[in-house]
Specification:
heterodimer; A: 350 residues; alpha/beta; Rossmann fold; 12 helices; 30% helix; globular; B: alpha/beta; Pyruvate-ferredoxin Oxidoreductase, domain 3; 3 domains; seven-stranded mixed β-sheet
């Protein structure tokens, strides 16, 4: 890592539709280890938000506890952030999203924070289909406490300490699918070309959008016997296909071979171009998605890309039929029924 | 044997089997007395079970207006053979035991100092009804009809109640009135009516209402502007959110769009419930959760976060008997310490202690103001007795000119004008800092909320002096909190005295009654009702003015006494515990007995285990 904050900005730095440069979406200097995959993911979040022209302060970023949960400090510095307690970000973001449906909710968590201590809340936030982006920076180990295996460490994988993990690993994409997530993707911190469009798709999706990003821990879990090392992931990652994110109103210019391309329209009018899909996999079919994950798991490879998406997803606000105006915008006149109503209630209690 | 005789002064206890529909009939009985203008206090004593176990319903009528539990039973109405032996034993000498004599009474149960009155309830039902469910349900209505004759109640009041209760389901009215008549006529034709213990209608305060504390809390949350309720079902708090939802459906749905100006989430557990409340409050909505003891334990971690990160959080704790699962359907005030110091590290939490449904409504609404004004959790401490039993209460009122107090929130305009913003910067010297809602301003006022140490501008730091400065500011805030909280109430004795009682929450009614009895005994006591923690300076001054203060509580460990000693630095000798913790609401007779024992020098015996047992022995003596 660098200990100097660069303050010089090129005057011709590209601006987005709102006139913001990418620097307006950056955060404080990272204190993670040099080469940490998490920093690349932060960079992808910055790029996606900038390119989508989202007002930086209209995003709320929330996390739990752990290395990954520290990252919201390192991106989107003009957004409110909330570093909650270990494994409990889902409940905090649920409350936040209920209070104000007009912000974009970006949740960041780790494999310990999600697959162990936070497994219960993770399952239920997926089930409620909260409208948010939920990114797990997945390195298979506990960094802050010096490298213990996490629940996503593959069976037989060994961290720097050298003991192979004896337990079955939890596949968070499979879990998210099973629990009702309406967008499920997996990517690799080192593959921004894939990750940035996935984050954009997740942002534009209405409902619970989950991205499991394999993000090697350079300090404790980047050794040859680890299945979450840079080398292993590079050698074993297989994409479902590439995707292009096309913002609303923008002409699709890329050309694809007939039959290999598939367009998906998102709630906000933007669209996804999916192409070169694996023949057996249809990302709009949940059953097919689950099968594909299992197939790859058996073969020892890592499936990346968009795994599943429900185009007609209904989020929690739809289900609860909450007011179109954000609940935190309602005042006395909307909320307080007044003394006349109370008189009627009193009368019914006599 | 001289049968008990009284007018408008009685305790009647119904012994039923749970799941048989007795609750609604018993409620009807209590409400009829209320409509006759009589001070009435019903208590539901029920098992943690759905069907088949004994359940009781105790109704007290007191001309003098005593609404706490008196202790003792004048009339037992027994339709449950399982508990009959116990039920007949509880009757006061000279009292009455009314039972279903379709089957003969076990002669071993007979008492010669109690009037035994048989009514063939099952036989009457079986002759009248063919359907088994009807037989079961109407049996309850029939005994209410019979009691109306035995106690000389206004029969028209009962029929009027049935008409009101089944408004909209009119076909149910006549069968219920018929069942009442069956019981009423049978009693009048076969028994000497009325009994020595009876009632007479009075011109009671006509504006009073009969309401349970949980419903009042749900309404308080609506009037206080709560929009997000997150909760996990747990007895005895469940009906808080039930009431919130019921009235929200009526009062908070936009008539034009049909959309809801509220969101209720049944969370996966109590941790998630309070997490959602914290998230919503952080984001500028008013939110609350309701729970009971086990939920408090689970919420502790989050309560520490809300304390340290200074996020408004409203929590209604309807206490039940602990520890652990304890007695889930019995009442206690035993979470005082675990709430006051909820969470690890140096944490302190604000507590409110309502005593009546009206106060549940008022403080329920006020807690939402307080949480935002003080930017910290507000834990409203009620209990099963207040929450789940109907109480006579003054009517609920709302000042339509009242505005929500949103506390210190910096606006986009202020930020734009260049006003300095530091989330933990104490600009007013009261320890309470300005916050911003997420999304307020494009480039100013965003900050990072965290449970880790940080500086005045919310930047992460591990510098000891910054940490200490923040913790001392939190203490400064703590010291300014009492002025925002409801003040204690003081009732001075007519006579000079160096002794006093101190009570809180649902111990109020029984304590006030016990004070009258003690005055009859020549023992005069000043009284204070504590309504909030941290304690007002008035609490300290009151205690210091007295040589002895009896602290009346419904727990084993004298928890409020401990809190008083710890927080005010008082000598243990000055505070004498008066305790009841058998799961029943504390009774006036019990309080009187314990204080008399102290006054007679009974407190100089060593503090043995047996003594604790006697002190907490409920109502048996």
């Amino acid at each position: 890592m660098s200990y100097l904050t660069p303050t010089f900005r090129h005057p011709d730095l590209p601006v987005n539709n709102l006139g913001y440069t990418k620097a307006d979406y950056e955060g404080a200097l990272s204190t993670l280890c040099a080469g940490c995959g998490h920093d690349s993911i932060s960079g992808s979040i910055v790029r996606a938000a900038h390119e989508l022209s989202i007002e930086p302060h209209k995003i709320a970023k929330l996390s739990g506890i752990g290395c990954s949960s520290k990252t919201p400090t390192y991106f989107l510095g003009n957004s409110h952030g909330f570093n909650s307690v270990h494994g409990r970000m889902p409940s905090v973001v649920t409350g936040a999203a209920l209070a104000n449906r007009d912000l974009l909710y970006m949740g960041v968590s780790g494999d310990g924070d999600t697959a162990s201590i936070g497994m219960g809340q993770f399952a239920h936030i997926a089930r409620r289909n909260l409208n948010m982006v939920y990114i797990v920076m997945n390195n298979g180990c506990y960094g802050l406490t010096k490298g213990q295996d996490s629940a996503t460490a593959d069976e037989g994988s060994a961290s720097k300490k050298g003991d192979p993990n004896p337990f079955n690993s939890i596949d968070l994409c499979a879990t998210a699918l099973q629990m009702g997530a309406t967008l499920v993707a997996r990517s690799f911190s080192g593959d921004k070309d894939q990750l940035v469009p996935l984050i954009k798709a997740a942002i534009s999706h209405r409902g619970f959008a989950f991205i499991d990003v394999v993000s090697p821990c350079v300090t404790f879990n980047n050794n040859p016997a680890s299945t979450k090392s840079y080398e292993f992931v590079r050698d074993h990652a297989e994409a479902t296909g590439t995707i292009d994110f096309v913002p609303m109103g923008k002409e699709i210019t890329a050309e694809y071979e007939a039959g290999s391309s598939h367009e998906v329209t998102l709630h906000d009018g933007s669209s996804l171009q999916l192409h070169k899909l694996a023949e057996t996999h249809d990302p709009l079919n949940r059953r097919s998605a689950i099968n594909t994950i299992e197939d790859y798991r058996e073969s020892g490879n890592i499936l990346t890309g968009l795994i599943y998406m429900d185009e007609s997803s209904r989020d929690l606000h739809d289900t609860l039929e909450t007011s179109e105006r954000a609940l935190n915008q309602l005042g006395e006149a909307d909320l307080c029924p007044g003394n006349d109503q109370l008189r009627k209630i009193n009368a019914s209690l006599r | 044997m001289k049968p008990l005789a009284s007018v408008n002064d009685l305790v009647i206890k119904f012994a039923n089997v749970n799941g048989t529909g007795s609750a609604s009939a018993n409620n009807m009985f209590a409400k009829a007395l209320f409509r006759m203008g009589l001070p009435v206090a019903p208590k539901n004593i029920f098992p943690s079970n759905i069907q088949g176990l004994p359940t009781w319903y105790e109704v007290r009528v007191s001309e003098k207006g005593y609404l706490g539990r008196r202790g003792g039973v004048d009339i037992a109405l027994s339709v449950n053979p399982q508990s009959m032996a116990q039920d007949i034993q509880e009757v006061e000498p000279g009292g009455y035991f009314v039972y279903d004599n379709t089957k003969p009474l076990d002669l071993r149960l007979l008492r010669d100092d109690v009037s035994i009155i048989g009514i063939p309830l099952t036989r009457i039902c079986n002759e009248e009804y063919k359907d088994p469910r009807q037989r079961q349900l109407f049996k309850n209505v029939i005994y209410v009809g019979a009691l109306a004759a035995l106690l000389d109640m206004d029969f028209e009041v009962l029929t009027g109640l049935v008409e009101d209760q089944f408004k909209g389901k009119d076909r149910l009215i006549q069968p219920n009135i018929h069942a009442l008549e069956l019981g009423h006529d049978w009693a009048r034709n076969h028994l000497e009516c009325p009994l020595g213990v009876r009632v007479e209608a009075r011109e009671g305060p006509r504006d009073s209402i009969l309401l349970d504390g949980n419903t009042a809390l749900g309404l308080g949350a609506i009037y206080g502007g709560a929009t997000v309720a997150a909760w996990y079902p747990i007895t005895p708090s469940t009906s808080v959110v039930d009431a919130f939802e019921k009235y929200c459906k009526r009062l908070r749905v936009d008539p034009e769009t049909g959309r809801r100006n509220y969101a209720i989430v049944q969370a996966e557990d109590e941790l998630a419930a309070i997490g959602m409340v914290i998230g919503a409050s952080w984001n500028g909505a008013r939110a609350f959760t309701a729970t009971s003891g086990p939920g408090i334990s689970l919420m502790s971690e989050f309560l520490g976060l809300a304390y340290f990160a200074e996020i408004p959080t409203v929590l209604f704790n309807v206490q039940r008997a602990g520890p652990s699962t304890g007695m889930p359907t019995r009442t206690q005030q035993s979470d005082v310490l675990s709430c006051a110091y909820a969470s690890h590290g140096d944490t302190k939490q604000v507590l409110l202690f309502p005593s009546t449904p009206r106060e549940c409504f008022d403080l329920g609404a006020k807690s939402l103001d307080l949480a935002e004004r003080l930017q910290t959790p507000i834990i409203l401490m009620t209990d099963l007795d207040l929450g789940m039993n109907d109480h006579i209460s003054s009517p609920l009122e709302w000042d339509d000119a009242r505005e929500f107090d949103r506390g210190k929130v910096m606006t986009a305009e202020e930020l734009e004008a260049g006003k300095e913003f530091g989330r933990y910067l104490d600009v007013d010297g009261d320890g309470i800092c300005y916050r911003t809602y997420p999304g307020t301003h494009a480039t100013r006022g965003s900050f990072f909320t965290r449970g880790t140490s940080r500086d005045e501008f919310a930047i992460y730091t591990e510098k000891g002096e910054e940490y200490e400065k923040n913790m001392l500011r939190l203490m400064r805030k703590w010291d300014t909190i009492p002025e925002h909280l409801p003040a204690p109430e003081i009732i001075e004795s007519d006579q000079d005295t160096d002794a006093a009682v101190l009570y809180y929450g649902t111990s109020e009614a029984s304590s006030r009654e016990a004070l009258d009895y003690l005055a009859d005994d020549g023992i005069y006591l000043d009284a204070m009702r504590v309504r909030a923690f941290p304690f007002s300076h008035i609490v300290r001054e009151f205690i210091e003015k007295h040589e002895r203060v009896y602290v009346i509580e419904q727990n084993r460990d004298a928890q409020l006494r401990t809190l008083l000693m710890t927080e005010l630095g008082l000598a243990p000798d000055q505070l004498k515990p008066v305790l009841s913790f058998d799961g029943n609401p504390i009774s006036a007779r019990n309080i009187r007995k314990q204080i008399r024992r102290y006054q007679e020098g009974g407190d100089i015996t060593p503090f043995h285990r047996e003594n604790i047992a006697i002190r907490g022995a409920g109502d048996s003596a």
